[in-house]
Specification:
The chain has 610 residues and is α/β, with parallel strands linked by helices. 35% of the residues lie in helices and 23% in strands. It has an eight-stranded antiparallel beta sheet, with helices on one face. The longest helix has 20 residues. Bound molecules: 2-deoxy-2-amino glucitol-6-phosphate. The site of 2-deoxy-2-amino glucitol-6-phosphate has 15 residues, from helix 9.
Length: 610
């Protein structure tokens, strides 16, 4: 899940590499490092911790060079430390790597027997020593890299190599995880992610699996897995180098929560025509595919999986279509039975989550009608590989905790539900009514955000707790799951979610006056049932925090805090609207606990390892 950026340029590349690293930091932030060729010599600087620590080290010890590579790490093999930080070196060669080498122990033994000394605990270091070994014999860096790649096992090992033996070019290889070349005016770049290239160029070449590229200042040559020189298309990115300024906000998560009305407005823009959803919103071939769809299978991870769980309720109820939802990490190792005319839907903010991508690739072999990617990042691997694409247009999301990506996914899935329901004859009036409810979402979210102050105050009740329970029913159950995930990932409070009806089947045993129980209680047909479940909590002395519809009466007592939503909302709007206060709750609790909430410990924004 590490971030890689490299450049062969005309002038000093260090500032460009550092800006690239700042844009890649969401991939991992355990350590950062860079290496440049200066006066024909390889020079390297690494620091434990964030990119800022590397910047401070550079301020005191400037490194410059016309070609260089840089890396931000999410530790897999070897703890976060300076010695384990990339680039790893062997003689005058430096390597930055993203992925896992499964046979690193065998290679290490062999290299040690050949006299190589290891300085780190990483799997990456075997790569650089093997390249050194082959370079000494082949005399050509590209050949040495290709020979090394041939020895590596474990599908995810993309890398960029810099050597004083060939100081004006980088060698980049794609094995499993994306590598993109950026064609600049004064030099060329290479990175694990388009975001790192955008400040310099939007002209891109995506390497294909097994490709090795020689990225020089004035030319880029690409060779396929068989060693034949190939041309890869040059695309102009649709992404902009979005501003990553915090503005008036303290954290990106806060900024992104408050951007939700604008993000939802973008997600809906040009997709509604005369009270109906345009099929073209899902791509030019969507009409005939969606007309044949007889069932939907959704696959995703984390927050995106929760969006899929919400959609299942809506697809079943509104479109009357069977819908299955799977965790991508489980799906890829199952043997799913695929009913005829099933649409496979992969949901991902980043479009690079390795399990979701692997699930998509597996699905392509299983006889689905077609595959659809619901994704926030144009030109991501997911959007390039799926048959149909729907971009959620949430805008760049930097906080590790996904917020605006989730609510725009819910809006996207609602649009999909409506289009599929139309094919199944819901009728223009019903469609118009649902579309109107959809169009109201940005305004309603704006109103929900007014709860910010009240929730900041409520957060004090959670700040010293070790556990919390979240309850919901129906489509609000995955919303409770999302609330629990938000709280645990950024505040480190252990939080679990349960369908409220499940309480007495086990989790009720945990309830006491030290266990806050959060419930989402819209005024729908499940409210009476939810009330009984909440009574069960009160009867055991549990402290209840209920986000409720304005019209719902709860017997207030000392152990119950009710937070009324600003407006009554339609059932189809409930999951999205009741998500917002739970995001705010997690945010304010984390602020009180003083965690690094945009970059919580042990996590990364994009999960590119299994
Ligand atoms: C959400 O807050 C998470 N940090 C995480 O669960 C995330 O949703 C998951 O890793 C999936 O990412 P994706 O949407 O980019 O595929």
């Amino acid at each position: 899940m590490c971030g890689i950026v490299g450049m062969a340029g005309g002038q000093n590349v260090t500032p460009i590499l550092m800006e690239g690293l700042r844009r890649l930091e969401y991939r991992g932030y355990d350590s950062a490092g860079l290496a440049v060729i200066n006066g024909g010599r390889l020079q390297r600087l690494r620091r434990m911790g964030k990119v800022q620590a590397l910047q401070e080290a550079l301020n005191g010890n400037p490194l410059s060079g016309a070609s260089g590579v840089a890396h931000t790490r999410w530790a897999t093999h070897g703890k976060p430390s300076e010695i384990n930080a990339h680039p790893h070196t062997s003689g005058g060669i430096a390597v930055v790597h993203n992925g896992i080498i499964e046979n690193h122990e065998a290679l290490r033994e062999q290299l040690e027997a050949d006299g190589y000394r290891f300085a780190s605990e990483t799997d990456t270091e075997v790569i650089v020593h093997r390249i050194n070994y082959h370079l000494a014999r082949a005399g050509d860096l590209r050949l040495a890299v290709s020979r090394t790649i041939g020895e590596l096992e474990g599908g995810y090992a993309s890398m960029v190599v810099l050597s004083d033996a060939q100081p004006d070019a980088l060698i980049a290889a794609r094995i499993g995880t994306p590598v993109v070349v950026g064609l600049g005016g004064d030099g060329n770049l290479v990175a694990s992610d388009v975001a790192a290239l955008l400040p310099v160029t939007s002209r891109l070449q995506f390497l294909e699996e097994g490709d090795v590229a020689v990225v020089g200042r004035d030319s880029v040559r690409i060779f396929d897995a068989g060693g034949r020189e190939v041309q890869r298309p040059v695309r102009v990115s649709e992404q902009t180098a979005d501003s990553v300024d915090l503005g008036r906000h303290r954290h990106y998560m806060e900024k992104e929560i408050h951007e939700q009305p604008a993000a939802l407005t973008r997600a809906l823009a040009n997709r509604i025509e005369d009270g109906a959803i345009a099929d073209s919103a899902f791509g030019p071939e969507a009409r005939s595919i969606l007309a044949q769809t007889a069932g939907v299978h959704i696959v995703a991870c984390g927050t995106s999986y929760h969006a899929g769980l919400v959609a299942r309720y809506q697809l079943e109820e509104v479109a009357r279509l069977p819908c299955a939802v799977d965790l991508a990490s489980e799906y890829r190792y199952r043997s799913p039975v695929v009913p005829e005319n099933t649409l496979f839907v992969a949901i991902s903010q980043s479009g690079e989550t390795v399990d979701t991508l692997a699930a998509l690739r597996a699905a392509k072999e299983l006889g689905y009608l077609a595959t659809l990617a619901i994704c926030n990042v144009a030109e991501s691997s997911l959007t390039r590989e799926a048959d149909l694409t729907f971009l959620t247009r949430a805008g760049i999301e930097i906080g590790v905790a996904s917020t605006k990506a989730f609510t725009t996914q819910l809006a996207a899935l609602l649009m999909l539900t409506i289009v599929l329901a139309r094919q199944r004859g819901i009728g223009a009036d019903t469609e118009r009514q649902i579309v109107n409810h959809l169009a109201e979402l940005p305004g309603l979210v704006e109103q929900s955000l007014l709860l910010d102050g009240a929730i900041a105050e409520l957060a004090h009740e959670f700040a010293d707790k070790h556990h919390a329970l979240f309850l919901g029913r129906g489509a609000l159950n995955p919303v409770a799951m999302e609330g629990a995930l938000k709280l645990k990932e950024i505040s480190y409070i252990h939080a679990e979610a349960y369908a409220a009806g499940e309480l007495k089947h086990g989790p009720l045993a945990l309830v006491d006056d030290d266990m806050p129980v959060v419930a989402v209680a819209p005024n729908n047909e499940l409210l009476a049932k939810l009330r009984s479940n909440l009574q069960e909590v009160r009867a055991r002395g549990g402290r209840l925090f209920v986000f409720a519809d304005p019209a719902v009466e709860f017997g207030d007592d000392d152990g119950v805090r009710i937070l009324r939503m600003p407006a009554h909302v339609q059932p189809i709007q409930e999951p999205l609207l009741y998500t917002v206060p739970l995001q705010l709750l997690a945010y304010h609790v984390a602020v009180l606990r003083g965690t690094d909430l945009d970059q919580p410990r042990n996590l990364a924004k994009t999960v590119t390892v299994e």
